[in-house]
Amino acid sequence: MRKTSTLLLLLLAGFLSHSYAQQDTTTKKKHRENGRELVKGTWAVGATLSLKSNDMSNTDYVLVNLINFKQNAFVIRAEGGYFFRDNLSAGLGVEYGQHLFDVKGNIYNNDDVKGFRNFNRSIAFTPYIKNFIPMSKNNTFFVTNQTELRFLYKQGTSENFQNGELNRSHLNRYEYGIGIRPGIMVFFTKNLAFETNIGVLGLTHYEETSTHTNKEDSKRNSTNIDLKFDILKLGFGFSYYFNKK
User: Fold this and answer.
1) Where in 113-233 does DSSP place strands (E)?
2) By three-state DSSP, how is residue 101 classified?
3) What is the pLDDT of residues 182-239, one digit of tens each?
4) Rounded distance, CA 66 to CA 163, Å?
């Protein structure tokens, strides 16, 4: 009887161990399916969006009565790339942006209302090289670092209202530069991932011409290192990864 009980316990333990091993293997397989190895020959397409919005009215400051303030801006970016090495891709990004800035107010003890309005559009092309560093065993979470060249064209109109006089300016700007865009990426499925990135450092040169209604036209050239944080440099979006058969 004792031998029979011992044999039954051993058989039950063996069955449970086999069942657990199968379940553990299935779980690990599911975890692996959520991630993806970014090997040579992989293609990627994606898009990110950046937004900024501020709206105030009838706000008093120390010396200024702000009658109206409005700021709306967005940048949408689409890109596609090819992995020429494992975890290293090259590609091209295209950006389109709009920016509206409108403010009106007056200085205390002065009824003269002053206003400024600016609206501009921009388009940019950004060839890049992007490095992916896997941070999890199942290739679900990656840290990314993108180095890109930037070629941008911007066109806009500014209006300045003061002392009952309206001055209008038209701007054309050509911008060239190089920048670094670190970020993170998380796979939800084997092909679809969520991405966020931010432009933190850039060397930029631009050439700008402006035509004015009540004064001579102007030109401006400048080269600078951009270390300023701007919410429009922070992008959120999705990307899709696939291999051609």
Assistant:
1) 114-134, 141-162, 165-187, 192-198, 201-212, 218-226
2) strand
3) 999 999 999 999 999 988 878 999 999 999 887 888 999 999 887 766 777 889 999 9
4) 17
**pLDDT tens track for 123-163:** 999 999 999 999 998 999 999 999 999 999 999 999 888 77
Domain span at residue 100 reads 35-243
Q: Report yes or no on 54 lying in a domain.
A: yes
Number of structural domains in the chain: 1
Torsion over CA of 164, 156, 233 and 101, rounded to 10 degrees? 20
Q: Over the chain, what is the mean pLDDT?
A: 84
CA nearest neighbour of 117 among 85, 88, 157: 157
**β-strand partners of 127:** 92
Tokens of 108: 């205390």
Burial (CB < 10 A; 0-12, 13-18, 19+), residue 148, is: buried
So what's the pLDDT on residue 20? 41
Domain presence at residue 23: no
What's 143's DSSP letter? E
pTM over 0.70: yes
154 forms beta bridges with 122, 173
Rounded to whole angstroms, how far apart are CA atoms 7 and 1?
10
CATH of the domain at 221: 2.40.160.20
Q: Is residue 9 part of a domain?
A: no
Percentage of the residues of the chain whose pLDDT score is greater than 70: 82
Q: Six-digit token pair at 244?
A: 């051609």
